[in-house]
Amino acid sequence: MNNYTWNYIQSHPKETKRLLGLDYEFLKALIEFGKIGCISILR
């Protein structure tokens, strides 16, 4: 992921809750879960 929003969130993780309604750590976990889910679906 390489876009303005993702770069901003990574630089300002405390803003994640205000912007997305999710904690930064929860967002990272969702992204990792999505990666794992996509891999298992492709197998």
What is the structure about, briefly put?
The protein is an all-alpha fold and 43 residues long. It has one domain (4-42).
Calculate Rg over CA atoms: 12 Å
Order of helices and strands: HHH
Structure summary, number of beta strands = 0
Unreliable parts: none
Average pLDDT value? 84
Q: What can you tell me about this protein's structure?
A:
The structure is a single chain. The protein is an all-alpha fold and 43 residues long. The protein has 3 helices and no strands. The chain has helices spanning 4-11, 16-20, 24-42. The chain starts with a helix and ends with a helix. 2% of the residues are buried. The model has no long low-confidence stretch (mean pLDDT 84).
Can you tag this structure with a few keywords?
3 helices, mainly alpha, 43 residues
